[in-house]
Amino acid sequence: MDGIIQGILQPLSYDFMRQALAVGILVGILCPVVGTYLVVQRMTFLANVISHGVLPGLALANFLGVDILLGAMAAGIASTIVIHWLQQQPRLKVDAVMNATLASFFALGIVLISALQVRLDLEGFLFGDILSVTAQDVERTLGITLGILALIIIFYRPLLFFTFDRVGAEVAGLPVSLLSLGLTAVISLTIVAGMQSVGVVLIMALMVCPAIAASLWFRQLHWMMVGGAGVGVAATVTGLYISYYWDWPSGATIALTAFALFLLAWGLNPRTIAGRSSGLGRSQD
Predict the structure, then answer these.
(1) pTM
(2) Residue 186 pLDDT greater than 90, yes or no
(3) Which parts of 218-249 fold into alpha helices (H)?
């Protein structure tokens, strides 16, 4: 028992590990809460598009010397506007439009980095480096997390209606376009918050896997968020400790841990067990 306690406490003697855990916990809470909306709306690929679509904004913000948050959010919203406009055109499929937008915005970001000769750590952007976060990063992530959670609490009921019945929400007079734009901005900010910890490529696992795991056990949206946040925190903390002791890449380890917890939640779910038992009974007949 003493060995286990020592193994938990020993990494906490380092500043980088304490700061990494702080950011990891915050991102582990925020990503699944926002990801729940995407899972329920079956729009998880939208987060993937936005995560790649922020690259041109990061390049321009770096070149102009402005806060990367503004650039990332602007580019993320722009990519969603392009998707929304193309979806309204006849004979265009949603999945094709999203893939085309993802590729084009990411390519535009690469071109801008080269043309403007900005210094942007692409490897860090893609895969993150949670062990390099500073106290300032912790404060920024805390501010983003608290701000987004506050907005979700304030606008919970309109977003709930919008999430489950968009047409009904529009008929009821809710500002559907504004809610959609606001949700896009929240997704963009969430991606920026998790960008340094797990990177934009792997942040999808942290946004989607805990939210899916929670959706297997809960039906009400707020409980999905709470359950997803619990899984997200467990994934980030466990992944960080595994990466510390086994010397694995931290972002990838967190993503794999999130996926493993999703599989565990699916395997232990009573409906999954009942389905397997039913299938076994039929095979024996």
Answers:
(1) 0.86
(2) no
(3) 221-246
> By C-alpha distance, which of 210, 26, 50, 212 is closest to 130?
26
Q: Which domain holds residue 94?
A: 12-268
Alpha carbons within 13 A on the beta-carbon side of 242: 17
Residue 222 sits in a domain whose CATH number is: 1.10.3470.10
- Which of 214, 213, 208, 199 minimizes the C-alpha distance to 253? 199
Residue 239 confidence (pLDDT): 93
Cα–Cα distance for residue pair 56/61, rounded to 1 Å: 9
Query: Within a domain: residue 274?
Result: no
- The structural domain count of the chain equals 1
265: exposed, middle or buried (Cβ count in 10 Å: 0-12, 13-18, 19+): buried
User: HSE on the CB side for 194, CA within 13 Å?
Assistant: 37
Q: Taking the alpha carbons of 8, 244, 133, 51 in that order, is the dihedral positive or negative?
A: negative
Whether residue 105 lies inside any domain: the answer is yes
Interatomic CA distance for residues 134 and 169, integer angstroms:
42
